Amino acid sequence: MIVMMHTAVGWHVELEFMEDDQHTRAAAMVRLPDGSEVRGHGHASRHRVDANQPRVGEEVAGARALNELAMQLLTKAHEDIDAASGRTSHPIHV
Length: 94
Hints:
By secondary structure, this protein is of the alpha+beta class. Helices cover 34% and strands 28% of the residues. The protein contains 1 helix and 3 strands, in the order E-E-E-H. The model has no long low-confidence stretch (mean pLDDT 89).
């Protein structure tokens, strides 16, 4: 049996948060091996009667930023497939 080994590729993802008492904003960025960067943003708001739990706001805003990042990566992959094949490919779904 022959096993093919492939070079491992790493992506570096960064998340940054900006917060006040009511809002959390998140910015996500992934740097791809070709040097290009894709960015996504997320937001969370705390209702005034809810307890102040910054970690929860970070989780919600961070998840939304990563979701936007994921959608942009799917769009980029779809465009790359089309460019390489010279035709319109089927949409890529999550």
